[in-house]
Amino acid sequence: MAGRLAVVGAGLMGSGIAQVAAQAGWQVTLRDIDDAATRRGVDGIRVSLEKFVAKGRLDAGEVAPVLDRITTTTDLAAVADADIVVEAVFERLEIKQEVFRELDKLCRPGAVLATNTSAIPVTQIAAVTERPESVVGTHFFSPVPMMKLCELVRGYKTSDETLATARAFAEGIGKTCVVVNRDIAGFVTTRLIAALVVEAVKLVESGVVSPEDLDTACRLGFGHAMGPLATTDLTGVDVLLHAAKNIYTDTADEKFFPPELLQRMVAAGDLGRKTGQGFYSY
Ligand SMILES: NC(=O)c1ccc[n+]([C@@H]2O[C@H](COP(=O)([O-])OP(=O)(O)OC[C@H]3O[C@@H](n4cnc5c(N)ncnc54)[C@H](O)[C@@H]3O)[C@@H](O)[C@H]2O)c1
Q1: Is it the case that residue 1 has pLDDT exceeding 80?
Q2: For the stretch 229-249, what's the b/e string if a residue is b when 16 or more beta carbons lie within 10 angstroms of its beta carbon?
Q3: Nearest-CA neighbor of 115 among 14, 193, 38?
Q4: In testing the pocket of ligand 1, which one of 17, 32, 48, 95 has its CB within 8 Å of the most ligand atoms?
Q5: What would the pLDDT profile of 81-90 be if each residue is shown by its tens digit?
Q6: What is the tens place of the pLDDT at every residue in 70-123?
Q7: Which ligand 1 atom minimizes the distance to the CA of 87?
Q8: How far apart are CA 43 and CA 34, in angstroms?
Q9: Which position among 118, 150, 158, 196 has the lowest Cβ density within 10 Å, counted as fewest Cβ atoms?
């Protein structure tokens, strides 16, 4: 299965999704709000493809055809003939809802409208359209060309047909899907990592264990590729705090209440790798 894909948002995730789909033979329209953003997206894709070539995982002759399958635009109307649209704009409900209102007007009937949100309930995004049955969550992981997982999220009105089309798309571009049957805050993966990180931070905060030893325990005891605190530094301490707060707001479940250390690190600007300091120094 390869067809016409539109990706709205050419940032880290949107460009990654555009890349893997183009590698799998899809014709991709990549849309962002200005030319500088679409250019950054395509530059990122070129660099990523060249890394695959350098590692011997892609033929050098494949780079140009993959890039040729990606057309950039700032005009949202270019989504009109897409079979699937994946939205990957900023993680803000009102911005996503505005995009979906427009997609609802512009897309052909039957097109699948997917959101790459990592935590916003799909139902809230779908509700602004006249076709909530066609809206689904496709939560890809970063970096998209490397990470195999796609969390497929069913909104309250998502149809079986929409879910099946989204699954065929994600599997067709090389991903393995897990299905989240109800779009609870944080879905499954963010719930699990938030619960683990909150408990890990509490253990560090109360002096039970050092960050290094806690991460070593998870790596060597559980076979995790990275410990939860090193993972948080990579993702962003602020991103994790935001996720835990959202889940806590939704569930009132104490286990997601962000510990003081997490809040103070964010207030002080120790956000992880991106600022040079998190649970570790970089
Ligand atoms: N970064 C991650 O690790 C990760 C992982 C999984 C899911 N996500 C989710 O994916 C989505 C995108 O995240 P990202 O990290 O790629 O963000 P990003 O900031 O790298 O990119 C967002 C892009 O959207 C563009 N944009 C904003 N409004 C737009 C509009 N109306 N139309 C078109 N483009 C618009 C911005 O110009 C920007 O280029 C978010 O919902 C995020 O929560 C991120």
Answers
A1: no
A2: bbbbbebbbbbbbbbbbbbbe
A3: 14
A4: 32
A5: 999 999 999 9
A6: 999 999 999 999 999 999 999 889 999 999 999 999 999 999 999 999 888 999
A7: 11
A8: 14
A9: 196
Q: Which residue has the tokens 């998209």?
A: 144
Q: Does the predicted model carry a pTM greater than 0.85?
A: yes
Could you tell me the CA-to-CA distances from 30 to 122, 144, 233 in Å, in that order?
22, 15, 30
Could you identify the atom of ligand 1 that is nearest to the CA of residue 14?
16
Tell whether ligand 1 has an atom less than 6 A from the beta carbon of residue 12.
Answer: yes
Give yes or no for a cis peptide into 143 (omega within 30° of 0): yes
Distance CA 86, CA 116 (A): 7
Which residue in 191, 184, 174, 96 sits closest to 135, CA to CA? 96
* All domains of the chain in start order, with CATH: 4-180 (3.40.50.720), 191-275 (1.10.1040.10)
Residue-wise pLDDT tens digits, 45-69: 999 999 999 999 999 999 999 999 9
Residue 27 phi/psi, 5° resolution?
-85, 125
